């Protein structure tokens, strides 16, 4: 696909073979305006679902899908209603899973940063304790040296 191109979907049933035939009694009983209203509502619902999917796609940085009406179908891919519904559900699930994974990645990054911060604190504490131990060692060495000097002085006094 080239840069700037869009994907076009036409979610209109292309086959009447999937429709159940109506009995003559049922077809006469159906009011044409009710049937027309029902079809219009279904079409509006489907378009609203596609708009919702487009919102999810754009949120994740993808280009929206375009619904086309009354165009030359040779340049387009056409889905029947069932395939269109499955496609919307798959795209919605994919976007939800992507959101979940991005959230998990953010949490992992935050946890990693927290662990690095805790490690730095512990390293600072260890360095402080090491310095304190070195200072105490120097004091102890100094005290030992002073004790040695005092012992030598005491021995010298006793010997004199």
UniProtKB/TrEMBL annotation:
Any single GO molecular-function term of the entry would be: gamma-tubulin binding
- As recorded in UniProt, coiled-coil segments are 105-153
Q: Does the keyword Cytoplasm apply?
A: yes
Keywords per UniProt: Coiled coil, Cytoplasm, Cytoskeleton, TPR repeat
What exactly does this protein do?
A: Plays a role in the organization of both preexisting and nascent microtubules in interphase cells. During mitosis, required for the organization and orientation of the mitotic spindle.
Read off the PANTHER family from this record: CENTROSOMAL PROTEIN OF 70 KDA (PTHR14594:SF1)
Query: What is the name attached to this protein's record?
Result: Centrosomal protein of 70 kDa
What's the source species for this entry?
A: Mus musculus (Mouse)
By which gene is this protein encoded? Cep70
């Amino acid at each position: 696909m080239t840069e700037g191109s869009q994907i076009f979907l036409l979610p209109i049933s292309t086959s009447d073979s999937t429709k159940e035939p109506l009995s003559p009694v049922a077809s006469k009983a159906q009011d044409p305006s009710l049937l027309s209203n029902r079809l219009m509502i279904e079409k509006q619902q489907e378009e609203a679902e596609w708009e919702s999917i487009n919102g999810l796609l754009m949120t994740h940085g993808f280009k929206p899908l375009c619904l086309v009406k009354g165009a030359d179908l040779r340049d387009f891919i056409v889905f029947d209603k069932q395939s269109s519904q499955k496609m919307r559900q798959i795209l919605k699930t994919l976007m939800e899973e992507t959101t979940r994974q991005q959230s998990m990645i953010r949490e992992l990054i935050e946890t990693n940063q927290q662990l690095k911060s805790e490690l730095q604190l512990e390293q600072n504490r260890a360095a402080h304790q090491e310095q304190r131990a070195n200072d105490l060692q120097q004091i102890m060495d100094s005290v030992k040296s002073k004790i040695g000097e005092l012992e030598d002085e005491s021995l010298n006094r006793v010997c004199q």
